C-alpha cells in the first residue's frame, strides 16, 4: 500500500536528505522509521504525507503515484492519512471537542453525527471528560492524545506520525504507544518516525532503519 522505489529528496541548496530509498509497507502493518538525528526520518514522513515532493524515484500510496500527482489531487490522497506531527497545530481558541470536530465539519458530516464521532474519538484517547477544556489547559501528553483523536476521527486507513512521544514523560509516552498499538490491532496501517528506545525495543511490528538518507 506504500511502495517507495529509489526515492531521493534533495533540498534547495543541494543537501540530499534521502538517497535512493526503497521499501514496501503492506496494509495493516505497523512500521517504525528509525535512525540517527538527521538520518531523513522526518523527510520521509513528509514525502509520504505529500508535504514535500520527491526529487526523483517513485512513491505509490494506495495505488497512486504521489510523484506524478497534480497539486489539486493532494487533499484527496491525504484523506487516507491521519497525520500526527510533533507540533500538533491544535487550535487554542476552541475546545478540545471543537478541535476534533473540525475535520468532520470540513468533510461535511451532519452536526449530530459529527459530534457523536468526535466524542467517540475523545473517549478512545481517554479525554471525553475534558471535551470542553481548551487545549492550553491540557498536559503535553493530553494534547498529544487530542491530536491523535483529531487524526483518527475521519477513520483514516493509515496513521502517520513524526516523533509522537518526543517531549513526553515516560507514562504519557507509554499511553501514546499503547494507542498506536490499539489502532494497529484493529487493522489500521501505522507508520511512525521515532527514536523512542522503549518503542524500538518492543516494537510489535517492523522497522525501517535509515542511516544518512539510505535504508540501513
Ligand atoms: N527544508 C530543509 N532544507 C534543507 N535541509 C533540510 C531541510 N529539512 C531537513 N533538512 C536536512 O535533511 C537532513 C534530514 O533531516 P530530517 O529532518 O529528515 O532528519 P531526521 O532523521 O528526522 O532527524 P531528527 O531525528 O533530528 O528529527 C538533515 O541533515 C537536515 O538538516
Automatic annotation (TrEMBL):
InterPro entries on file: AAA+_ATPase, ABC_transporter-like_ATP-bd, ABC_transporter-like_CS, ABC_transpr_LolD-like, P-loop_NTPase
Keyword terms, alphabetized: Amino-acid transport, ATP-binding, Cell cycle, Cell division, Cell membrane, Membrane, Nucleotide-binding, Translocase, Transport
Superkingdom of the source species: Bacteria
SMART domains attached to this UniProt entry: AAA (SM00382)
GO biological process: amino acid transport; cell division
GO cellular component: plasma membrane
Pfam families named among the record's database cross-references: ABC_tran (PF00005)
GO molecular function annotations of the record: ATP binding; ATP hydrolysis activity; transmembrane transporter activity
Domain (ABC transporter) ranges: 2-216
Family the UniProt entry places it in: Belongs to the ABC transporter superfamily.
PANTHER family recorded: CELL DIVISION ATP-BINDING PROTEIN FTSE, IMPORT ATP-BINDING PROTEIN
Reported function: Part of the ABC transporter FtsEX involved in cellular division. Important for assembly or stability of the septal ring.
Protein name: Cell division ATP-binding protein FtsE
Amino acid at each position: 500500500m506504500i511502495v517507495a522505489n529509489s526515492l531521493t529528496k534533495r533540498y534547495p541548496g543541494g543537501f540530499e536528505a534521502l538517497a535512493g530509498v526503497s521499501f514496501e509497507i503492506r496494509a495493516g502493518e505497523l512500521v517504525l522509521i528509525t535512525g540517527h538525528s538527521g538520518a531523513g526520518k522526518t523527510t520521509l514522513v513528509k514525502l509520504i504525507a505529500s508535504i514535500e515532493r520527491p526529487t526523483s524515484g517513485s512513491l505509490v500510496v494506495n495505488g497512486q503515484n504521489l510523484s506524478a500527482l497534480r497539486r489539486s489531487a493532494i487533499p484527496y490522497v491525504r484523506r487516507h492519512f491521519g497525520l500526527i506531527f510533533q507540533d500538533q497545530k491544535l487550535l487554542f481558541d476552541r475546545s478540545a471537542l471543537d478541535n476534533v470536530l473540525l475535520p468532520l465539519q470540513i468533510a461535511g458530516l451532519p452536526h449530530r453525527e459529527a459530534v457523536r464521532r468526535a466524542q467517540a474519538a475523545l473517549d478512545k484517547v481517554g479525554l471525553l471528560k475534558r471535551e470542553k477544556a481548551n487545549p492550553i489547559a491540557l498536559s503535553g501528553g493530553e494534547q498529544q492524545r487530542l491530536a491523535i483523536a483529531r487524526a483518527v476521527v475521519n477513520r483514516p486507513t493509515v496513521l502517520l506520525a513524526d516523533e509522537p512521544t518526543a517531549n513526553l514523560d515516560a507514562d504519557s509516552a507509554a499511553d501514546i504507544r499503547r494507542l498506536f498499538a490499539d489502532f494497529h490491532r484493529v487493522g489500521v496501517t501505522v507508520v511512525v518516525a521515532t527514536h523512542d528506545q522503549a518503542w524500538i525495543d518492543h516494537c510489535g511490528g517492523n522497522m525501517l532503519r535509515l542511516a544518512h538518507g539510505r535504508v540501513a
